[in-house]
Backbone:
């Protein structure tokens, strides 16, 4: 009865929000940046189109707290949803809507989403994740245009060891908000394009135990592209970032050494179609990070993505990324990542896909606030591997059955010497996940 009553409450909660699911997709988070490409026709209200929906599913997590031993498995009840609002856009026009409006001077897209998670173990609280997003464009595709956007995401799944030996753990809520302003200029021929922007990113945690990780990042990105063939462009990007941790008092008592920093990066390369079926992105650059305390970095960064559309119903992508990213231990982490994904559409109703990646990582010197080595090794390094299979069958244009199977592993010899509340997993781990559910959308 307890589970049934919680299901009823979850359904009522989601119905009140009027939101819907896109897909469970190995993370059970509602927001998907590409969901506009897979939405239904929507309800037209004046010059706006509403895209609502609802979904209920179930899942299984073999390692809730990402532990290397004493793993805690659990079944999970999932209720997700979103409601998007948009001006009539490219999706409708691509589908041949005879009533689709001409491109407007002002284009808008926004939405809200929520996901309710109930773990069938007493060691995890029920939790509600959420997202909200707004994208406003003025004069798109004209000589000068303005783009304003904001994306909020709330993730609630456990990301580290349990903090109490029995009973519910503390909240794992992680809240991320990114607000951006971009000014875009183009030549009348559309051959040259430049962008200058400002982005403010805020990350904060529900629990005080993780408060040391709360931070704010200011970014100033710029880019320039030259279209030298109809579908090919030379691209240059550059970015400056400043990151500060917003609770200095928490940093002094945190289990890891954290430092405010300044980072710069730039890349140059090619992006475009080689043939009707092949497209390529190839970028090479350099990045450097300067920290008030702890280790600095400077290194080569790169990105290569090859996409092959064998048929309209069969696609394959292969890629390699080399990047230096912020880290809660060691100031930064150098990542070399190989990834591949393929999708198949059968009979116009069944979509199947396989996704895999391998990430080889190494942090900077991992220290505690007093300057001692944080773990069994000076650096946390290892290999993360993910393999997943996903599918969706559409009974109707508005009704679909989705399924997702995934395996994630972190292979490392690193072990923390102290087990204070940590944002990072304690050590190596393996996780198997499975999801199954129904969704309706329009």
Residues:
């Amino acid at each position: 009865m307890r589970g049934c009553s919680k299901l009823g409450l979850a359904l009522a909660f989601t119905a009140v929000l009027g939101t819907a699911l896109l897909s469970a997709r190995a993370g059970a988070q509602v927001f998907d940046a590409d969901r506009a490409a897979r939405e239904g026709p929507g309800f037209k209200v004046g010059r706006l189109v509403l895209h609502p929906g609802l979904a209920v599913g179930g899942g299984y997590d073999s390692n809730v707290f990402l532990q290397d031993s004493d793993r805690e498995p659990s079944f999970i009840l999932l209720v997700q949803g979103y409601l998007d609002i948009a001006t009539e856009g490219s999706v409708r026009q691509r589908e041949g809507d005879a009533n689709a409006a001409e491109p407007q001077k002002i284009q808008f897209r926004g939405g809200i989403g929520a996901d309710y998670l109930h773990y069938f173990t007493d060691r995890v609280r029920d939790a509600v994740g959420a997202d909200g997003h707004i994208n406003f464009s003025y004069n798109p595709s004209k000589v000068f245009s303005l783009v304003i956007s904001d994306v909020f995401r709330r993730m609630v799944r456990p990301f580290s060891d349990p903090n109490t030996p029995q009973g519910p753990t503390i909240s794992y809520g992680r809240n991320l908000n990114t607000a951006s302003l971009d000014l875009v200029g183009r030549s009348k021929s559309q051959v040259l394009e430049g962008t200058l922007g400002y982005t403010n990113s805020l990350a904060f945690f529900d629990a005080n135990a993780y408060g040391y990780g709360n931070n704010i990042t200011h970014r100033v990105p710029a880019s320039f592209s030259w279209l030298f063939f109809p579908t090919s462009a030379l691209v240059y990007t550059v970015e400056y970032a400043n990151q500060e941790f917003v609770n200095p008092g928490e940093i002094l008592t945190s289990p890891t050494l954290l430092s405010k920093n300044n980072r710069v990066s730039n890349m140059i390369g090619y992006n475009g179609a080689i043939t009707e079926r092949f497209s390529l992105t190839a970028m090479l650059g350099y990045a450097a990070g300067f920290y008030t305390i702890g280790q600095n970095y400077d290194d080569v960064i790169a990105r290569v993505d090859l996409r092959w559309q064998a048929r309209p119903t069969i696609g394959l992508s292969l890629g390699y990324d080399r990047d230096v990213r912020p880290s809660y231990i060691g100031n930064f982490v150098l990542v070399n990542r190989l990834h591949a994904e393929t999708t198949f559409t059968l009979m116009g109703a069944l979509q199947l896909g396989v996704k895999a990646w391998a990430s080889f990582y190494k942090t900077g010197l991992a220290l505690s606030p007093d300057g001692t080595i944080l773990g069994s090794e000076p650096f946390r390094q290892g290999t993360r591997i993910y393999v997943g299979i996903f599918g969706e069958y559409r009974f109707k244009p508005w009704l679909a059955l989705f399924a997702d199977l995934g395996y994630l592993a972190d292979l490392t010899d690193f072990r923390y010497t102290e087990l204070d509340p940590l944002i990072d997993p304690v050590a190596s781990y393996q996780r198997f996940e499975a999801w199954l559910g129904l969704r309706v959308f329009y």
About this structure: The CA atoms of residues 140 and 197 lie 16 Å apart. The helical segments are 2-17, 90-94, 248-252. The first helix runs from residue 2 to 17. DSSP finds three helices and 20 strands in the chain.
